[in-house]
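ok so for the tutorial part 2 we go from a plain amino acid sequence to predicted structure tokens. step 1 is just haveing the sequence, like this:
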Amino acid sequence: WYQRRVLIDFHPQYYEIARHYIHNLFLGEPFIAIHLRRGDYFTHCKYIVGKEPPWVSFSKSVSLVGEPFRSCYPTIEDIVAVIAKAKEATGLQLVLIATNHPSEMKEVARQVAGTVLFDDTLLRDLSAPHPALRDLDRTIIEMTMLSMGKHFIFNKYSSFSGTVYEQARIHGRVDTDDANVAVW
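step 2 — the prediction. this is what the tokens look like for a chain of 184 residues:
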């Protein structure tokens, strides 16, 4: 299964919808795509970083914040600092953050200009040519939108991040040396 995961792709309709949202959000400009798992993940991070070796979703091993627990569950200060460094290093000014805890990320969006949070209101607020979306559809569109980034910051412990990474690779958005991919 692990080797065959690169053969799995989302339906083209999801990419059409995601491109529509990206266009409405960023007017076609490239962006930094970020996944931050929060809330319930605090306990999960304590468990998985204690494993030897720790379980990871994909093999990026260099962490932007160093210490294992913070690489799984970075602080708000870590998040703001890493985004600022990524913006400076890449020249990209727009950021899309997908998270299961958008209320906590509002502080990040307040501190980092050009940041958009993917939350329940995002898909309602942007008009799109599609029928009502199910929860699964929203999750797939969220993953698809992230996979359309130019630079990526993921949680290497998260299967959600791992799936977005694979989708970006399938569509040629990940540099061959993974230079445009970083992990907390």
